[in-house]
Amino acid sequence: MFTPQRVAVETTAGDVVEALERPRSSFAGHTLETPWTALQLAYFAGTAMWTYLTQPFTFALPGFQTTELTPWQEAGEEWRRLRVVWPSYLATHSTEQTLYVGDDGLFRRHDYDVEIAGNNAAAHYISDYTQVAGIMVATKHRVFPRAADGQALPDPLIVSIDLSDIAFT
Question: Which of 9, 15, 99, 135 gets the most CB atoms within 10 Å of its CB?
Answer without folding.
Answer: 99
